Amino acid sequence: MLKGKEIVLGVTGGIAVYKAVELLRLLVKAGARVQVVMTKAATEFVTPLTFQALSGNPVHLELFNLISEEKIGHISLADRADLFIIAPATANCIGKIAHGIADDLLTTTVMATRAPVLIAPAMNVNMYRNAIYQENEARLKAHGYLFVAPACGMLACGYEGEGKLQAPEVILEEAVAALTPKRLAGTRILVTAGPTLEEIDPVRFISNHSSGKMGYAIARQARLRGAEVTLVTGPTCIAPPLGVDVVRVQSAQQMREAVRERLEKTDVVIKAAAVADYRPKLRAGNKVKKETESLTIELEKNPDILAELGACKGKRILVGFAAETQDLVRNAGVKLEKKNLDMVVANDVSQEGAGFNVDTNIAKLLFRDGRVEELPIMEKEELAGVILEHVEHLRGGERG
């Protein structure tokens, strides 16, 4: 999402400047073209040469440089920016911007830009809690400036609390969010992801190979597009997306309860979880000992969460998944009709690049009007975007 984007990275003076170096590396790795503007104080912590080497561009330091500039520097930087990031941002810099003071290259460029401005504060906890600083931050938010809340932890000054510059990965994610159109703003989306785990005894269980990657990608992309997202997830090893309400469950029964509890306040349900069809009829209270040559476990059906949702969906959009190994379109079409879905994402998990525990998928999208859209192999993040584009169209039809 950042590929080819022009980003201006403003760096102000503070011990957290070293994290801005890592942020720059991540931005460049994501395909962005980055121009770095440093205040004089910032150069006392890390030299401009470090930022120049990583960005591949000269670092901008002076408000007026009539020898090397053909254009007015701060206007040129302001005009070319798709996004302006200030990280770390000191209380002093934030205070000046809040009151329209433009007395150096950084603050002057911010004043002149029409691009979104994302500010990542870093300061002493008492400075951060100071009423004047809080007023300045609120003032800027009211004018549309974006903020990445600082982390809590041990600060360089020896205090502990808020004020620590947020992790570069978090700032990067908020940069992506700032540049993503908010076409799903005001939409409440519930996503299910991962496997369910059905216990045999306190040690053993029945499950499947689902990694949760597809559902997590959908939750992340929905949040980036402005939706209010709830992710109901079975056991996975994936870090949850930022800004998403995460509800962790284990069994199909728990997932059913979590979904039903939140259904009333949901506009769209995307059921990407691989829910176990069966569970042991009896769960042993203690570990079943290996005393016989064979073991018979009687299974009983789990509730069909998707079918239950289809029966009471009302005006909600309902999207299901069909992981098959044969007769893909026919089986997915039966699921679409039988469970009253608006769309089914079908994939043949026996295909290379389309199964579990991989970062790609090969999908066919089936719709209620009989359309079948065949997609090439793509990253699950990209497929998540395609799915949500269709959700946007379906929502538009409902509103119409």
TrEMBL record:
CC per GO annotation: phosphopantothenoylcysteine decarboxylase complex
GO-annotated molecular function: FMN binding; metal ion binding; phosphopantothenate--cysteine ligase activity; phosphopantothenoylcysteine decarboxylase activity
Ranges of residues in domain Flavoprotein: 5-172
Coiled-coil stretches noted in the UniProt entry, renumbered to this chain: none
Keyword Flavoprotein annotated: yes
Signal peptide: none
Cofactor note: Binds 1 FMN per subunit.
Keywords: Decarboxylase, Flavoprotein, FMN, Ligase, Lyase, Magnesium, Metal-binding, Multifunctional enzyme
Cofactors that this protein relies on: FMN; Mg(2+)
Enzyme Commission code(s) on record: 4.1.1.36, 6.3.2.5
A Pfam family per the record: DFP
InterPro entries: CoaB-like_sf (IPR035929), CoaBC (IPR005252), DNA/pantothenate-metab_flavo_C (IPR007085), Flavin_trans-like (IPR036551), Flavoprotein (IPR003382)
Residue ranges, annotated region (Phosphopantothenoylcysteine decarboxylase): 1-188
DNA/pantothenate metabolism flavoprotein C-terminal domain span: 184-392
Any GO BP annotation: coenzyme A biosynthetic process
UniProt record similarity statement: In the N-terminal section; belongs to the HFCD (homo-oligomeric flavin containing Cys decarboxylase) superfamily.
Function: Catalyzes two steps in the biosynthesis of coenzyme A. In the first step cysteine is conjugated to 4'-phosphopantothenate to form 4-phosphopantothenoylcysteine, in the latter compound is decarboxylated to form 4'-phosphopantotheine. Catalyzes two sequential steps in the biosynthesis of coenzyme A. In the first step cysteine is conjugated to 4'-phosphopantothenate to form 4-phosphopantothenoylcysteine. In the second step the latter compound is decarboxylated to form 4'-phosphopantotheine.
Record's protein name: Coenzyme A biosynthesis bifunctional protein CoaBC
Species per Swiss-Prot/TrEMBL record: Geomonas terrae
Chain's gene name: coaBC
